[in-house]
Write a structure and sequence with these properties.
This protein is of the alpha+beta class. It is built from 3 helices and 6 strands; from the N terminus they run H-H-E-E-H-E-E-E-E.
Amino acid sequence: MSDETAAVLATVQGYFDALYEGSVEGFRKVFHPQAQLFTSELGTIAALDFDSYMARVADRPAPKASNDPRFDEVVSVTIASPSTAHVRVRDALKPNRYVDELLLVKYPDGWKIVCKAWAFNNA
């Protein structure tokens, strides 16, 4: 595994941990402050800025609080250039399992998620 792939995966692990712990602080470490998030699940279209997403995180129970099992999986990693990467992951927030598409950009302080699109995958 290359150093760049390891660095991208470290950012993704921070994402998984923040998701499981419901940690706004954890998300702030791995997302760019101007990140955008999108979904069109269940006919509801959502296009959120990062602060709106953090409000959702702060208002929902964390999976860790109810001792839910973790479901963290990296499906694929593509380092497209020295400064861009795409990672497809699977994760869960009861009752749903998700597929997330994460776009990352490398900044002087490391890799940051700049865009997230998600969909349910409850099969």
